[in-house]
Amino acid sequence: MAKSYDVVVVGAGPAGYVCAIRCAQLGFSTACVDDWINKQGKPALGGTCLNVGCIPSKELLESSHHFANIRDHGEHYGISSRSLEMDIPGLIRSKDETVAELTQGIEGLFRANKVEWLTGRGQLQADRQVLVTPHQGDAYHIQGDHVVLAPGSVPIEIGAAPLQGDIIVDNAGALNWETCPEHLGVIGAGVIGVEMSSVWRRLGAEVTILEAMDDFLHTVDQEIAQSALKSFQRQGLQIQLGARVTATRVKDDKQQSRVEIEYEDSDGKHSITVDRLIVSVGRRPNTDAIAADDVELTFDERGFIHVGDHCETSLPGVYAIGDCVRGPMLAHKGSEEGVMVAERLAGQASHIHYEAIPWVIYTHPEIAWVGQTEEELKHAGEPYRSGTFPFMASGRAKAMNDTDGLVKVLAHAETDRVLGVHMVGPLTSELIGQAVMAMEFEGSAEDIMRTVFAHPTLSEALHEAALAVDGRPLHIPPPRKKK
Ligand code: NAD
């Protein structure tokens, strides 16, 4: 007889492990099946986010920022940087320690909440059974009253640039180099492309990013994207837009292997040679073998599991959450879906306000936004008012020597309701939370105007951008009135 649980969660990334913990908190007997094997060859919880995604990349971004900031601006802070050096193997070690601590932290949370961790690959069978195939030993079945699928996503591979050793890598490979390439190539100027380029540029690499689209960060509000582009170009990132990679070749010479990249743009065909290459052209749902062939789970044409508003799949009692379903591939979106599903199983009326999910790109300056962009509002014909405030005029940003960027608030022209907030600048990953709350509470630009912000803080830039919606910022000249 298959062992039975109230809830079986397949996948222990931020969607699955959070769902499992919330289910257990609500009194459900819960098992979580996961097949991740970490760098040390051991099963580990946390999925892509903790093992090879959000967390390790943030450690490399943080450390490389401190290094480059002191190297390039130490004099401004009165710090001599004459003998500054980066110990890259040390950096990688410390990143690995952080990952180990956090993934073991989830093990502790599972123990404390009595979530049973089953290591191995989980596959949905008929009647909410799950087949668990461990890395060693025989496969076995478990039974769930409810099953939650959270298998995450995997990097998209393209025929033009097959991965090869530590020369042509995806995001995971780029987190483990122990030396800095002289010339790094990156395919795709998306979230991963610009984050990983920033790390290796700061550590000394010449970086060329080849991006197929003509617009930089085309889903980001373009005023913000253009400001970020200028900052990145000043930092020395070479970003070639409208450049589609068509082929790559690894050339072995006596000393080292190099990669020849062929690409096309509006001027024709070109080629460049780099020492290493990161392929960051997007991710796809990790759903290839998530259900047995005889299970009628519905997928869309791109392999995402089809779900309704509350993550219910086409099968009764089976739910899917996180990167494997519609919506942005963001850890916090998956986690909230996990909480929502657990609470709905317990009879609560939880829901997610998908319009108020924040995005952050952890470059320097950081890019963060929530809600609709100006381009989307124009396209939808929505009447809106806009207010912006540059960090150049923020006393706190000035004192931090960190004045690139701006905050932009978009509000409905008639109701004044906040429709979107877009930021590029210092610590906007933290500032955006205030805008998310304003939107979650269905706030207006006036609500933000009438809120008291501490001085001197970066948050004042949000206050001023909201004031600017009404044409009355205090610390920049008001926009000229049209005659
Ligand atoms: P992405 O979709 O953000 O960007 C991929 C880019 O590659 C696109 O701009 C695309 O036009 C370009 N591209 C595709 N094929 C190309 C080719 N042949 N030549 C040149 N350019 C090409 O994908 P990503 O950066 O790989 O990230 C994957 C996912 O991971 C994203 O959906 C993101 O949500 C998530 N992620 C989020 C964060 C964060 O929240 N900070 C960090 C990392 C990853």
Structure notes:
The chain is an alpha/beta fold and 483 residues long. The chain has helices spanning 14-25, 47-52, 54-77, 88-113, 191-202, 222-234, 331-345, 374-380, 395-399, 428-440, 445-449, 460-469, and strands at 3-10, 30-34, 115-119, 121-124, 129-133, 140-149, 153-155, 168-169, 183-187, 206-210, 238-240, 244-252, 257-265, 268-274, 276-279, 283-285, 318-320, 359-361, 366-371, 384-390, 406-412, 418-425. Strands 1, 2, 3, 4, 5, 6 and 17 form a seven-stranded mixed sheet that branches. Strands 8-15-9-10-11 form a five-stranded parallel sheet. A five-stranded antiparallel sheet has the order 18-19-22-21-20, with helices on both faces. Helix 1 (14-25) links the parallel strand 1 and strand 2 (30-34). The N and C termini lie far apart (81 Å). The structure holds nicotinamide-adenine-dinucleotide (NAD). Nicotinamide-adenine-dinucleotide is lined by residues 158, 160, 187-193, 195, 210-213, 244-245, 280-283, 328-330, 360-362.
